[in-house]
Specification:
Helix content is about 35%, strand content about 25%. The protein has six helices and eight strands, in the order E-E-E-H-E-E-H-H-H-E-H-E-H-E. Strands 3-4-5-6-7 form a five-stranded mixed sheet. A three-stranded antiparallel sheet has the order 1-2-8. Strand 6 (about 120-130), helix 5 (about 135-155) and strand 7 form a beta-alpha-beta unit. Helix 2 (about 75-95) packs parallel to helix 5 (about 135-155).
């Protein structure tokens, strides 16, 4: 394994390899360990840049399954849990950038420390291993609805929520099977 890259294994999938300076395994970080009790967290953050466009901060959550929308209250709880993980990841990242966590200076990768907070955009990415493509749209719609106030308040792109299965993730993003 290249020390300059990181691969994250979660829910039967391997994400990466990513440049270690642009990937932060927030769920395994000391930042999260210190506040972990009763705080749910996304798996990792990925900072992507393309040309002159503003930086894109991906908040990635991986799951091995999800309930069907007709399975209430399980589906609603699933949506609330994923939303909570993303909101907590965004909050911890921004709180760290603002100096609210003293160990953040040593633990955040360099590009995260210099992220222009007035210009960045966010992608809330959920990858569900083994999920059928036709099961993804209702999950994406429910997550978009649950995150709409956050997306609008921060003026993130209306396409900030992305739900993929492992096949789509393999095709469009660095992901491999474990």
């Amino acid at each position: 394994m290249n020390p300059e890259t990181i691969t994250i294994k979660e829910s039967g999938m391997a994400f990466g390899p990513y440049p270690s300076a642009r990937c932060f395994h927030i769920e395994k970080s000391p930042l999260y360990t210190d506040i972990r009790q009763e705080v749910k967290m996304a798996e990792f953050l990925l900072l992507r840049t393309e040309g002159d466009r503003p930086a894109m901060l991906w908040m990635v959550e991986a799951k091995s399954s999800s309930p069907q929308p007709k399975n209430e209250p399980d589906f609603s709880q699933f949506i609330m849990d994923v939303r909570e993980k993303w909101v907590n990841a965004l909050s911890l990242t921004l709180a760290s950038r603002l100096g609210r966590h003293r160990q953040a200076e040593a633990k955040l990768p360099g590009p995260f420390k210099t992220l222009d907070l007035s210009q960045f955009d966010v992608r809330f990415v959920l990858v569900i291993n083994g999920h059928r493509k036709d099961w993804l749209p209702p999950i994406q719609a429910a997550l978009q609805k649950s995150l709409r106030p956050l997306v609008r308040t921060w003026n993130f792109s209306p396409t900030s929520v992305v739900v993929l299965n492992d096949e789509l993730a393999l095709k469009h993003h660095p992901l491999s099977r474990t």
